[in-house]
Amino acid sequence: MQFDVIVIGAGAAGMMCAATAGQRGRTVLLLDHAAKLAEKIRISGGGRCNFTNVNARFDCYLSANPHFCRSALAQYTPQDFIAMVERHGIGYHEKKLGQLFCDDGSERIIAMLDEECRLGGVDRRMETAVLSVARGDDGVFAVETSGGRFRSSSLVVATGGLSIPQIGATPLGYQLAEQFGLPVTPLSPALVPLTFHVEDAEIFTPLAGVSIDVEAKAGKGKFRENVLFTHKGVSGPAILQVSSYWQPGMELLLDLMPDGDAERWLEEKGDSEQLIANALSELGWSRRFADAWLDRVGMNKRLKDLGPKQRRQLAEQLHRWCVKPNGTQGYKKAEVTLGGVSTQALSSKTLMAADVPGLFFIGEVVDVTGWLGGYNFQWAWSSGYVAGMNC
Ligand code: FAD
Fold first, then answer.
1. By the 8 A CB rule, do 349 and 71 touch?
2. Pocket, ligand 1, Cβ cutoff 6 A
3. Which of 71, 152, 234, 289 could cross-link 3 (Cys pair, CB 3.0–4.6 Å)?
C-alpha cells in the first residue's frame, strides 16, 4: 500500500506528527509494534502526564548543539499545546515551576491525540513489527512489516529512546539512522536515580524514604529541589535533574543548607550543650537523617565540642557534601535517554535528514534531552508538529 507519509512509533512525537500531517491532507500510516498507544504518556507524571512546561526554552535541553531545538520550540510552543488541551476540554493545573499536569488521568492526552489523528484520517496499525526499511533510487521508502509492505515518499522515525524497555522501547530508530548514514551521539540513561558505593549504601539504606531540600550539582548541572534517599542510593527531582549532567567517576555535590550560611548559623548557636543533630532537626531535617549524616562526616557531637576549625569543616560539609555515586539505576528506571541521532545531520527547521530527502527523526530519538518537568513532552510535540508540517 502507498501513503504520503509513514510514521514509525505511535508515541508522543509520532502521534503529534501523524495528526499534523493528516490534517494537512497527507495520507498517513502510523505504525507501532506495541499493543497499546503511547504507553509512556500513560505512565508519565505519576499517571497525570506533566504534558508541558510553560518555561520551555532551548536552554532547558541538553544536546551537542544546544541551539538546535530553538526553531521547533518557536514553531510550536507550550501555548500551542495548551490551546489544544483546552480545545479538548481537558482540565489541568500547574504543580510547580511551570509544570502543567492533567487534573484527571494521562489517558486524556492519549485520547486527545488519538482524536486529532482521527480528524487527520490517519491509518493506524498497532502490533506491527518493522522488519526492514529501504529507500529506492526514486526516493520512495519501502517499509517491510509483519503486517505487509508499505511505501511512502516521507518516512518519520519516532521510536523514542531506550528507557523502560518493558513497555516497548527498542533501538530501531538509532539503527535506522546508522543505516542511512546519520551519526548517533553516545547514549546513556538520564533523569535516573543514582546508586551509592557499598559503604555509603550501608549508612543511608536505613534512610530510604527520607527527603530533604538541597541544591545538587554535578558537572554543569545545578538544581534546587528535593533529594530522596532510596534503598540503592539517591533519587528525587534534584537527583534526576543532575543525573543528566553526571558521568561515571564524577562527584555529586549537595548543599544541604541552600538558603543559609552554615558557618554563621553555627556561630550563632555558640557553645551550647545542644546536640548538633537536634539543632539540624530544628531546621527541618529528619532526626534520622541528621544522625546518619553526622555519623558519616564524623561530627555527631554537641555544639560546644566543636572547635573553630571543626566548625568551619562542618560548615563546609553542610554546603558542599560530596558523594561519589557508583552508577545509575539504568534504562529500567530512567525517564529518558541522553544523546541520540546527531543534530548535525538534521535540519533544525524541518527535522529532515540533510542528506536523505524525505527521512525525518523526531522526539526522544534525536539528541535533544529536556530537564525533568514537562520539557521532554514539549520537545515531542514541537518536533512532531514541525515534521508533520514538512513531511
Ligand atoms: P515514545 O513516547 O517513547 O514513543 C515511541 C514509540 O515508538 C512507542 O510507542 C514504542 O512502542 C514505539 N516503538 C519503539 N520501537 C519500535 C519498533 N521497533 N517498531 C515499532 N514501534 C516502535 N516527559 C515529560 O515531559 N513529562 C512527564 O511527566 C514525563 N514522565 C515520564 C515518566 C516516565 C516513567 C518515563 C519513562 C518518561 C517520562 N517522560 C516525561 C519522558 C517522555 O515520556 C518521553 O520523553 C516521550 O514519551 C518521548 O516521546 P517519543 O514519541 O519520542 O517516544
1. yes
2. 8-14, 31-34, 38, 40, 43-45, 49-50, 130, 158-160, 163-164, 168-170, 172, 335-336, 363-365, 374-377, 380
3. 152
